[in-house]
Amino acid sequence: MESAKIVLLSTAAAICYGILHDQVTVRICIEYFTVFHPPVFDTDNPTLLGLGWGVIATWWLGAFLGIALALSARAGPRVKVTARELLRPVAVLLAVMALSAFLAGVSGYVLALKGVISPPVWLRGPWAQRSYNKNDFMADLWAHNASYAAAMLGGIVLCVITYRKRVRSSSSVS
Questions:
Q1: Which helix (H) or strand (E) is 80 found in, with range?
Q2: Eight-class DSSP state of 41
């Protein structure tokens, strides 16, 4: 049961983060959601787009990392780590993700503004017919990519730290 709580904690944390993140980024560049993403939602309402994509784009990563974290925390004979003990580390990971997204988004915007970067070639076709702010788009693209990268790297680090905690706890008990 505790493993399921860890997977649920990770999935819920990812979804909450995704919704909050997308509520911000959809207001920076709505075209990131309406043109760059497939038309899953028949709306241009930024709040609804942020809610919908916040769930769709994050639940799976939260569940995947939650399974890995549950294995790191519970598998085998060592001292077990509970979901409650993982609340703070998961919150720290979410804060690192948010900071990474903010810094990357600002960097993407500034670099696009200065002409150092532009939307990737594979995006230029459908975007050529639309009027959109390329600087805002690059801010969103970089923020989203940074969030995923921080989640993946941070999730792996969290699993390693959790398992090492179990190893230390088990050796001190013996």
A1: none
A2: S
Residue 144 has a CB neighbour count (10 Å cut-off) of 22
User: Strand, coil or helix: what is 31?
Assistant: helix
Q: What is the pLDDT of residues 14-70, one digit of tens each?
A: 999 999 999 999 999 998 998 888 888 889 999 999 999 999 999 999 999 999 999
| CB contact burial 71-95 (16+ within 10 A = b; e otherwise) | bbbbeeebeebebeebeebbeebbe
CB 172 within 8 A of CB 86: no
Residues 6, 86: Cα–Cα separation, whole Å = 8
Tokens at residue 11, please? 């999935």
Question: Is 78 in a helix, a strand, or coil?
Answer: coil
Compute the C-alpha angle 121/57/35, nearest 5°: 40
Number of domains in the chain: 1
Global pTM reads 0.91
d(CA 26, CA 144): 11
Helix or strand or coil: residue 75? coil
